[in-house]
Amino acid sequence: LMRNKNFISPEGILEFFFELFRCEDKLLRKTLYSHILADVKKLNLKRKNVKVNKVLQNFMYTMLRDSSAVAAKMSLDLMMELYKKNVWNDAKTVNVITTACFSPVTKIMVAAVKFFLTGCEYTEEEEDDSSDSETESNALRTMIISKQTTKKGRKRERKQSKALSVLKKKRKRKNKPSISSFSALYLINDPQDFAEKLFNRLQSVGQSVGASQQHLSFEVKVMLLSLISRLIGIHQVTTACVCTRMTCVHMHVRMH
Length: 256
Prior knowledge:
The protein is mainly alpha-helical. The protein has helices at residues 10-19, 26-43, 50-64, 69-84, 91-100, 106-118, 124-149, 154-174, 183-186, 191-203, 218-235, 240-255, and strands at residues 208-209, 212-213. A hairpin with a 2-residue loop joins strand 1 (208-209) and strand 2 (212-213). The N and C termini lie far apart (56 Å).
């Protein structure tokens, strides 16, 4: 209530909600996730709220390195969801997500790598629009026939015109070009450095990472190689050093 009446700044309260992801209550975390998502979307509804976005995106660097793996994973999921919904679809968001590709927690690392490999898939809203497209076209056809056959009246005409305009707006939104599947890869600030770090990560598998060792499955290693290959293809990362190391890592993956 206080947040809705602007008695509390959105930056402070949303940062606090992110920190509450550390709680063990699963229902509370789910509620917080939905609330943060809705609030950030609302803040950027009419135009991008640059001030709030910048503060929260900087705070995400901290959350992705949080000691609680659950809090870090939910923060990452929220960032990726906001990107897919065109709320946080800028370079800042993408480059924050790149840091998660080097997380010592395999689950977080895999989620970040998958984000760059699969890109922006259809959101729930887009799926609903596609499933309702046939219903909308039938409704439009019925309305046109009704308009031609029924008696004319000002009240009836106003209702029909209003309904037609709503359907046309929905069609326009649906026909807007979607984000490129791999658009996030184009927003990486330093793809060369990112690719090099991914190589180093593959080579250091099995060695100590912090206080423990991180062992990656064959599937995860292939995913990392796929991401590196995509970076090479898009950004032309083709130095001799990279190619040599790519061959060595590929042989290492096949051996394990």
